[in-house]
């Protein structure tokens, strides 16, 4: 499988200027190609192919208005045309229902705070014996190697983020022999806001709430930015301070997700999670907390790490009544308000914790054998028939909000 490895770059002043020139040329090529296709669409002409765009790009380098395109590597310009093809393909797939809804490609602006260019293998880039990244028409850029690459990279993408930091993202083919030794535990995960994750064995992992903890510093930096005059150098400095503050929050959240997902994959043979309606929840009053939790990023990490290390990963439907079914006897007693965190099953008398009960039901719905499910049940001396959980009809989807937060 293909994975991306990101490393921090530290270009010199001259290399930074060369990268800025490369970013600008790639942006101009993208906009020129997009304008050609938009003009053809407006005139009722056939869709302009990629080969035709490449020919026009080559010819434009000889014109006085675009002669400066020859100052950068031709590979990144061709890749910019391919990026436009990918954007159109994703847009058409969304119209066909093959992927979530997205808009058509848009023109890029020089004021965009994130810039990126991509070098393929035929661009002539390489990693020098001294550990630097040699980029064509840029030079040998210093790299902070935090780990070794498992194989020879096929492409490298140079990125400048909103905080002014440079990164190199390598695409590599991972070794198929990386599967971890087989183990017996299997776990179901219930994601929430009070606790970031509750496991089917009774473990509760607190939510770090990185954004909430940094709100005071973010507010101060944003207030300082709003007082600066537009177009001034001080406003640029203030904007970078705001971007760096947000970058620290995002980096801390990503590190937390990586550590937790790696731990769960290493310790369990199978992992099951619920497919949450994150976009729907992001339109409710819980939007800030939902974005702060970053469930989608965490689940994506679980999925690719499970595929990489030979573990089983299962998603269950978001309409599974995980909080409405007793994990001990399987009786469904209906939805419950969010303030009810513990209740007693009327059928078997088990005292159930809402979150742990949902985690156990997630594992059962995924077909996992949860051996530690009794850890979340406190038995009381009430005689009751012990039956296995049966198959219950799925409830009708009401609203995205109700369907998404019923398990919290």
Query: What distance lies between the first and last C-alpha atoms, to the nearest angstrom?
Result: 34 Å
- The percentage helix is 25-40%
Q: What is the 3D shape?
A: elongated
* Strand order across the largest sheet: 2-6-7-1-5-4-3
Portion in beta strands: 15-25%
Give the biggest sheet.
7 strands, antiparallel
Q: Helix count, per DSSP?
A: 11
Secondary-structure element order, N to C? EHHHEEEEEEEEEHHHEHHHEEEHEH
Q: Give me the Rg, rounded.
A: 26 Å
Alpha-beta classification: alpha+beta
Low-confidence stretches: 370-408
Q: Mean of residue pLDDT?
A: 86
Question: What is the number of E strands?
Answer: 15
Topology:
Blueprint lengths: L1 E9 L2 H30 L7 H11 L13 H22 L19 E5 L6 E2 L5 E3 L3 E6 L10 E6 L5 E8 L12 E6 L3 E5 L4 E3 L3 H4 L1 H12 L6 H35 L2 E5 L3 H4 L5 H7 L1 H15 L2 E5 L25 E3 L6 E3 H12 L11 E2 L21 H6 L3
Parallel strand pairs: 8-11, 11-12
Antiparallel strand pairs: 1-5, 1-7, 2-6, 3-4, 4-5, 6-7, 8-9, 9-10, 13-14, 14-15
What are its keywords?
15 strands; single chain; 5-stranded mixed β-sheet; 7-stranded antiparallel β-sheet; disordered C terminus; 408 residues; alpha+beta
3D structure, described in words:
The protein is an alpha+beta fold and 408 residues long. 39% of the residues lie in helices and 17% in strands. The protein contains eleven helices and 15 strands. The protein has a seven-stranded antiparallel β-sheet with strand order 2-6-7-1-5-4-3. A five-stranded mixed β-sheet has the order 10-9-8-11-12, sandwiched between helices. Strands 13-14-15 form a three-stranded antiparallel β-sheet. A hairpin with a 3-residue loop joins strand 4 (133-135) and strand 5 (139-144). The two termini are 34 Å apart.
